[in-house]
Amino acid sequence: MNRYSIHGIFLGTGTSQGVPVIGCNCTVCKSSDRRDNRMRTAFFLDVEGVHIVIDAGCDFRQQMLANGIISLDALLITHEHKDHMAGLDDIRPFNFMRHEAMPIFAEHRVVEAIKREFSYVFAEHPYPGAPMMNVQEIDEQPFEYMGIQIQPLRVRHLNLPILGYRIGQFAYITDASYIPPETMALLDGVECLVINALRFEKHYSHFCVSQAIEIIQTIKPKDAYLTHCSHSMGLYVDACKLLPEHVHLAYDGLRLELEK
Ligand SMILES: [Zn+2]
Ligand SMILES: [Zn+2]
Ligand SMILES: [Zn+2]
C-alpha cells in the first residue's frame, strides 16, 4: 500500500437519528458540550490535494458549510441507508462551480439505489438545475482515482454487505457489525483506523464499543477513532475516560493529520 499525506475531518459522527435526538431530554441530548452534538456520519479526506468525502447523509450541506469545504473531487458511498446518501442532491453547488458531474463511487446495489432514489437526476431530459452525478460502479477490487489508490473493504452491516475504504495508511469503516477475515487481512499495516461504535451496550446491526476495541486490538493501528455514535454512548467527557489510551471518541469537526 502507498503512503499518503492525509488531512482528515470528521464531518459527522452520529448515528442515523443524529444527536440530539428530536424530543429527547437525556443528558447527552441536553449537553452544551459541542462534542455531544453529532451530525450524521461522514468524513472528509484531503489526500495529496485530492478532496474526497465518504458518505453524503442528510447533513451533507451543513457539513460542507461548517467545515468550509468548497472543493470536492469525489464521493465514496458506503451503503444506501438514508443517513449515508440522503444529502446527494446538495452536490449541486459543486456541479455549478466545476461545470461538471460529481464522481460518485459505490457498489452495484448502492448505484441502483441512487438511481432509484434520485431518478430525476438520471431522466433522459433532467430538470434544469438537477444535480449532475457521474456514478461509477466499484466492487471489492482496489481502484485508482486521480492518482490515489483506494481499497474497498467488505464488511457486514447485520445482513447487508457494505463497503469501508482504505487509502494508504488510513482506513474508514462505518455501520459494520462484522468484519470477515479477508477484510481483516486488508487492514494489515493501517496506522489510523476509524471504526463505528454505537454505544457501550451491544446492538444487533452496529458494533458496540467493546466489539470495536476487539477489532482495534487485532489490527493494532497507532490510533483509532470511534464514530457513528448514539446518545446512549453517554457524555463525550465520560465516555473518553472508559477507552484505552490510543482509542479516541471522534466528534464533529475533529481533524486528523497523517504524515506520508
Ligand atoms: Zn448509518
Ligand atoms: Zn438523548
Ligand atoms: Zn446503515
What is the CATH superfamily label? Answer: Ribonuclease Z/Hydroxyacylglutathione hydrolase-like
Report the major sheet. Answer: 7 strands, mixed
Distance between the termini: 12 Å
Across the major sheet, the strand order is 6-5-4-3-2-1-14
Looking at CATH, which topology would you report? Metallo-beta-lactamase, Chain A
Work out the strand percent. 25-35%
Radius of gyration over alpha carbons? 17 Å
Number of strands: 14
Structural class: alpha/beta
SSE arrangement, N to C: EHEEHEHHEHEEEEEHEHEHEE
Helix content: 10-25%
CATH class: Alpha Beta
Number of domains: 1
Average of the residue pLDDT scores? 97
Plain-language structure description:
The protein is of the alpha/beta class. The chain has one domain (6-258): Ribonuclease Z/Hydroxyacylglutathione hydrolase-like (Metallo-beta-lactamase, Chain A). The chain has eight helices and 14 strands. The strands form two sheets. Strands 6-5-4-3-2-1-14 form a seven-stranded mixed beta sheet. Strands 7-8-9-10-11-12-13 form a seven-stranded mixed beta sheet. The N and C termini lie close together (12 Å). The protein binds zinc ion (ZN) (3 copies). One zinc ion (ZN) is lined by residues 21, 24, 26, 28-29, 231.
Features:
260 residues; alpha/beta; Metallo-beta-lactamase, Chain A; 14 strands; 29% strand; globular; binds zinc ion
List the helices and strands and how they pair.
Elements: E1 6-12, H1 27-30, E2 42-47, E3 50-54, H2 60-66, E4 74-76, H3 82-85, H4 92-98, E5 102-107, H5 108-117, E6 133-138, E7 143-145, E8 148-157, E9 160-167, E10 170-173, H6 181-186, E11 192-196, H7 209-219, E12 223-227, H8 236-241, E13 247-249, E14 255-258
Parallel strand pairs: 3-4, 4-5, 5-6, 10-11, 11-12, 12-13
Antiparallel strand pairs: 1-2, 1-14, 2-3, 7-8, 8-9, 9-10
The chain binds zinc ion (3 copies).
